Amino acid sequence: MTEVVDVTIIGGGPTGLFATFYAGMREMSVTLIDSLPQLGGQLNELYPDKYIYDVGGFPKVLAKDLVDSLVEQAEFAKPSIHLEETVLSYEKKDDHFVLKTNKGEHLTKTILITAGIGAFQPRKLGVENEETFEGTSLHYSVPDLQKFKGERVLVCGGGDSAVDWALMLEEVAEEVTLVHRRDKFRAHETSVNQLMESSVQVKTSRQVKEIHGKDGRVEAVTVAQRGGEDERFDLDHVIVNYGNVSSLGPLKEWGFEMDRQSIIVDRHMETSIPGIFAAGDVASYDGKVKLIAVGLGEAPVAISHIKSAIDPKARVQPKHSTSVFKQEEA
Ligand SMILES: Cc1cc2nc3c(=O)[nH]c(=O)nc-3n(C[C@H](O)[C@H](O)[C@H](O)COP(=O)(O)OP(=O)(O)OC[C@H]3O[C@@H](n4cnc5c(N)ncnc54)[C@H](O)[C@@H]3O)c2cc1C
User: Fold this and answer.
1) In this predicted model, what pLDDT tens digit does every residue of 15-67 receive, in sequence order?
2) Does the beta carbon of 43 sit less than 6 angstroms from any atom of ligand 1?
3) Same domain, yes or no, for 281 and 253?
4) Residues 148 and 234 occupy one common structural domain
5) Which of 39, 54, 178, 216 is deepest in the core (most CB within 10 A)?
6) DSSP element (H, E) containing 289
């Protein structure tokens, strides 16, 4: 039978990661779920190489380095981590919740939502029947380059990832074409210069209009050209890199008291549904400020109240960390 954990945290951004650590500090068992393939929330997904200057104790820190430290700290709690898994709904049983995801179920005494601005989904091409090719020959990321060995690949997009992928694929694929909607690239100048000197066929001011294929496999695409004739390319794979869209999606249907895209919480960080708490960007109350530093502060508040909710004898006020770590080291 699946174990009922003390708390399940939905969202592995900075708030969820620090809450995971804190659950360990308060001797709770913890599950952490995120819909992305990696931890770090907005920091790793939207701006890994940007500096952050307003987190206490770090005069200047790269977003991805802050995430690495938070992940290292969170490991103390020995969490059960589930990536590429999106939480959809919940059911309340007598003394626990059953959380339903796109991959299965998790049993938990309490829930902490640290879902930020919501689950990220890749922005689609927007052509007819695209979903029939998804997972086989229409992709939104490149987890394994070798899959494209000797294949003809079309990359769509003009940002850093699209250009980097085209250059990486050039090494293994038989043929790489890059189609970009605009005539200028958003990617770094050095990468664009490298692209222009590479064997990648670069087609700007163009957009995929139609995908042709059968049995779920792409065979060709028709590309519309601004002010020109449509072109058709025979190929094996299309990789789309148009960025992400985020949405609270199914969580909005849970029946919380909401303030637009945020979930209203009380001073314990508890939502209007007993046993379900929220913290970080997703949580709202009078005077709320959305910042990493604020989420890092709300995480221990939420976890400490969760602790006393599941164990009424436990004090809300945590012990100092030194006493916990001294016990660990003894
Ligand atoms: C370009 C940019 C620059 C920024 N710079 C700064 C800065 O300098 N300083 C600062 O303080 N703040 C900055 N911010 C804001 C900061 O990134 C956010 O305040 C912070 O990420 C909030 O953290 P969080 O953990 O609450 O949520 P998020 O980082 O949004 O993480 C939420 C996680 O929840 C996951 N999730 C959502 N729904 C589900 C679901 N149903 N199932 C499973 N997983 C789900 C998402 O995949 C995501 O990983 C910046 C934001 C942007 C976009």
Assistant:
1) 999 999 999 999 999 999 999 989 999 999 888 888 999 999 999 999 999 99
2) yes
3) yes
4) yes
5) 178
6) none
